[in-house]
């Protein structure tokens, strides 16, 4: 399931099987990671994407992270793509910060 513009999809989300939507989203996150560090090998890009999906999703109180939850109904334990989580992991290792954008 992906959040989409309500102008295009009145419900605000779309759900479908297949890779028609997931492939460009994952590819976009890979491109952002490579924009931060163009020397990353493919296996490292994959690792940041997978680990980023398991990053905490905010804080319920100071010092109390909200854990990532697995996708319900998946045949194995998988997590939702999280671009911010992946970029934050890489930024921490590079000694940088990732600031969320509200635009």
Strand-residue fraction? 5-15%
Biggest beta sheet summary: 2 strands, antiparallel
Total DSSP E strands: 4
Helix content: 25-40%
| Strand order in space, largest sheet | 1-2
Instruction: Give the terminus-to-terminus CA distance.
Output: 22 Å
Report the structural category.
mainly alpha
Unreliable parts: none
- Any idea how many domains? 1
Total helical elements: 3
What is the arithmetic mean of pLDDT? 85
Q: What is the string of helix and strand elements? A: EEHHEEH
Supply Rg: 15 Å
So what's the overall shape? globular
Secondary-structure blueprint of this entry?
Blueprint: E1 2-3, E2 13-14, H1 22-36, H2 42-53, E3 59-61, E4 64-65, H3 83-94
Antiparallel strand pairs: 1-2, 3-4
Helix pairs in contact: 1-2, 1-3, 2-3
Features:
mainly alpha, two-stranded antiparallel ribbon, 4 strands, two-stranded antiparallel sheet, 103 residues, 9% strand, single chain, 3 helices
Overview of this protein structure:
This protein is mainly alpha-helical. The protein has one domain. The chain is 38% helix and 9% strand. It contains 3 helices and 4 strands; from the N terminus they run ββααββα. A two-stranded antiparallel sheet has the order 1-2.
In short:
The chain is 38% helix and 9% strand. With 103 residues, the protein is mainly α. The chain is globular and about 40 Å long.
